[in-house]
């Protein structure tokens, strides 16, 4: 069964079922792997899309979504990207020499909790040492520069609680292992979040820049310009530290420092709804189609430069 991305927000099991159906529909082009399990034992699945030409070990464009449970437009956009790659012949250029690896739901327990219980939950659902506080921020739990008080918190009451140890959340471990799996061919890491209309580059943990920062800025520039041209809106890009706020232990810094990603971008999709994280269903189509213009432009820019 095909999912109509514009018609609703889908929960974790619906998304997993949809990805299973894609394996049946496109057996030569799609692979689905359960990379591990969440704290509450939900299967964390990662989809690989190729053009089916049989060439192995192409460089990879890796996209994740739903590190933060309440940012519902992110998994919807991941599903839209999957459909663009599989169903639209005009996107064949994106798959000629690259494989796409997509993980629509990282924080499966938190995401489920936002559907069943508490719409604006952000963190995981694993208990902390303090009984009344549940959950850790996956985007502060990665083991590169983990634990800096400027960009994370050691207090389980906080929304940016980093956990007791780096990688003490099973969901963080799964994303770490997936990124490390593609370490030798990670051309582009894109992490989908909301909100703010930002393309955030490393570093999050310090005000300085990685060696190839200006290369990353050119990729981000291509994406921002494409979106700005088609929407007459605004999209900003620069280091996460400067543009948003310091973050330590996030997936973006990890991808560059320890998984050899040539480019890593955290994309803060547009706001919607009452609190920014909750766009109406009627806004999904506009947000994901305008965002796709940007992601396609960034991917084409990465591809035209050649994997380095
Ligand atoms: O705080 C976060 O984890 C991200 N923002 S969100 O509103 N989606 O929670 C920002 C991550 C920023 N990354 C860097 N500063 N590198
Ligand atoms: Zn987020």
TrEMBL record:
<keyword id="KW-0862">Zinc</keyword>
<dbReference type="GO" id="GO:0008270">
    <property type="term" value="F:zinc ion binding"/>
</dbReference>
<dbReference type="Pfam" id="PF00246">
    <property type="entry name" value="Peptidase_M14"/>
</dbReference>
<feature type="domain" description="Peptidase M14">
    <location>
        <begin position="8"/>
        <end position="302"/>
    </location>
</feature>
<dbReference type="GO" id="GO:0004181">
    <property type="term" value="F:metallocarboxypeptidase activity"/>
</dbReference>
<keyword id="KW-0645">Protease</keyword>
<protein>
    <submittedName>
        <fullName>CG32379</fullName>
    </submittedName>
</protein>
<dbReference type="GO" id="GO:0006508">
    <property type="term" value="P:proteolysis"/>
</dbReference>
<feature type="active site" description="Proton donor/acceptor">
    <location>
        <position position="268"/>
    </location>
</feature>
<comment type="similarity">
    <text>Belongs to the peptidase M14 family.</text>
</comment>
<dbReference type="InterPro" id="IPR057246">
    <property type="entry name" value="CARBOXYPEPT_ZN_1"/>
</dbReference>
<dbReference type="GO" id="GO:0005615">
    <property type="term" value="C:extracellular space"/>
</dbReference>
<dbReference type="InterPro" id="IPR000834">
    <property type="entry name" value="Peptidase_M14"/>
</dbReference>
<keyword id="KW-0479">Metal-binding</keyword>
<keyword id="KW-0732">Signal</keyword>
<keyword id="KW-0378">Hydrolase</keyword>
<keyword id="KW-0121">Carboxypeptidase</keyword>
<keyword id="KW-0482">Metalloprotease</keyword>
């Amino acid at each position: 069964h095909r999912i109509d991305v514009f018609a609703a927000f889908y929960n974790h099991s619906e998304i997993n079922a949809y990805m299973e159906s894609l394996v049946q529909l496109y057996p030569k082009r799609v692979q689905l792997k359960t990379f591990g399990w969440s704290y509450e034992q939900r299967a964390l699945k990662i989809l690989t899309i190729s053009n089916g030409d049989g060439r192995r070990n192409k460089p990879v464009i890796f996209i994740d979504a739903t590190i933060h449970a309440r940012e519902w437009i992110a998994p919807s956009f991941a599903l839209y990207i999957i459909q663009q790659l599989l169903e639209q012949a005009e996107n064949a250029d994106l798959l000629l020499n690259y494989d796409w690896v997509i993980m629509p739901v990282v924080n499966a327990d938190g995401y489920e909790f936002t559907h069943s219980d508490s719409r604006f939950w952000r963190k995981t659902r694993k208990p902390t040492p303090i009984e009344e506080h549940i959950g850790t921020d996956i985007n502060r739990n990665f083991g590169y520069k983990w634990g800096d008080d400027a960009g994370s918190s050691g207090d389980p009451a906080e929304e940016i609680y980093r956990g007791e140890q780096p990688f003490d959340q099973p969901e963080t471990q799964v994303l770490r292992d997936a990124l490390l799996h593609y370490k030798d061919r990670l051309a582009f890491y894109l992490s989908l979040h909301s909100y703010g209309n930002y393309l955030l580059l490393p570093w999050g943990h310090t005000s300085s820049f990685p060696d190839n920062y200006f290369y990353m800025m050119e990729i981000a520039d291509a994406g921002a310009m494409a979106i700005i041209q088609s929407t007459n809106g605004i999209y900003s890009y620069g280091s996460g530290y400067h543009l948003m706020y310091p973050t330590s232990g996030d997936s973006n810094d990890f991808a560059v420092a320890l998984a050899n990603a040539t480019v890593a971008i955290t994309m803060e999709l547009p706001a919607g709804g009452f609190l920014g994280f909750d766009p109406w269903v009627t806004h999904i189509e506009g947000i994901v189609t305008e965002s796709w213009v940007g992601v396609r432009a960034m991917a084409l820019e990465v591809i035209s430069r050649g994997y380095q």
